[in-house]
Amino acid sequence: MSHVSPGLYVSLAEIVPDLHVHCVDPWCLIGSTAALLLGAKVSADDVHVLTSRADADALMAQWSERRVSGSALADSDRLRSHFARFSFPGVPVEVLGGLELHTDNGWQVVQPGRLVLAGLNGLAVPVPCIEDQIRLFESFGREKDLRRAAALRALGSRTSIPPILSFR
């Protein structure tokens, strides 16, 4: 757990059990937190939860008192979703329901690919496997995402925190 900041851990410890209870459809973490959980040398100052639109609605109701009003998804010309930002002790949490990426072929649903469960002090946290995280970061194309993809490539085929379970 030493690679996870105390603030990030506090948020994950609170939200992950809720996600397992309140999400009906598959969900996962994406972004810098997901990369960090697989051992990449990146910093994470928020949590991005990829869910279905229906589960995003459920979380918005469950966490309504924590919702940050007036927040919007960054880079809305390239990314869109059923979005909400929440204030949790530790770091903010963003829910991305039905995330889509604008490509040359129009808006495409973001598919996380093969998921693995990263273990964090007793928490089972679904994240895309290294290869799929690299694919996602490269598809987003922003400089910060390309740096994260490079940090994941530096891991090679190993991870410093072995996944608990792998599934599609």
CATH topology type: Beta Polymerase, domain 2
- Class of secondary structure makeup: alpha+beta
Instruction: Describe the sheet with the most strands.
Output: 5 strands, mixed
Number of domains: 1
Tell me how many strands there are. Answer: 8
Annotated CATH architecture: 2-Layer Sandwich
- Ends: how far apart? 26 Å
Number of helices: 5
Helix content: 25-40%
Features:
168 residues; alpha+beta; Beta Polymerase, domain 2; five-stranded mixed β-sheet; three-stranded antiparallel β-sheet; 5 helices; 33% helix; 29% strand; disordered C terminus
Topology record:
Elements: H1 6-22, E1 28-30, H2 32-37, E2 47-51, H3 53-62, E3 79-86, E4 93-103, E5 106-109, E6 115-120, E7 123-128, H4 130-140, H5 143-153, E8 163-167
Helix pairs in contact: 4-5
Structure explained in plain terms:
The protein is α+β, with helices and mostly antiparallel strands. It has a single domain (6-167), classed as Beta Polymerase, domain 2 (2-Layer Sandwich), CATH 3.30.460. Helix content is 33%, strand content 29%. It has helices at 6-22, 32-37, 53-62, 130-140, 143-153; strands spanning 28-30, 47-51, 79-86, 93-103, 106-109, 115-120, 123-128, 163-167. The protein is globular, with a radius of gyration of 15 Å. The two termini are 26 Å apart.
